[in-house]
Design brief:
This protein is an alpha+beta fold.
């Protein structure tokens, strides 16, 4: 995943967990340079991010009208959860199966506020969904 330095910094500046928060990624030239934060706040005791699908779909529609390509979802994690959870993986599979046939891959990075971003890529492969770790290139 290639991402603009300014966009990467915005992701790193997200609030500490809990609660988990997230949003969507977009680009015009396959370099992530657009993000929209999901302003939905979950319980501070919860280690779970549940996106506001209605508002995020509205953002995606607005992006389409402006020529910005939807590239995936991001959400924050606490340091003691460095991997995608089983729930994260199941949700990624549901999202990928709901995507139009022309969407073959999306990014699902984990954000560790004030520290780093860990990249993950979901791909459609022969009718199945593969989730792999993906290198992040900040440009």
């Amino acid at each position: 995943m290639q991402i603009r330095k300014s966009t990467y910094k915005k992701l790193l500046n997200m609030p500490s967990v809990p609660p988990e928060m997230g949003g969507i990624l977009g680009s015009k030239n396959n370099v992530i340079d657009e993000i929209k934060f999901d302003r939905k706040i979950t319980s501070c005791e919860s280690g779970i991010y549940v996106p506001d699908v209605k508002i995020l779909n509205k953002y995606i529609q607005e992006w389409n009208e402006r020529g910005i390509q939807f590239q995936g979802f991001f959400h924050t994690h606490a340091f003691n959860w460095p991997e995608l959870s089983q729930d994260d993986k199941e949700y990624i599979v549901c999202i990928m199966k709901a995507m139009p046939e022309v969407v073959n891959q999306l990014y699902f990075p984990l954000i560790f506020p004030n520290s780093h971003v860990r990249g993950f890529l979901a791909k459609k492969v022969k009718g199945d969904i593969e989730i792999i770790e993906d290198m992040i290139e900040v440009i």
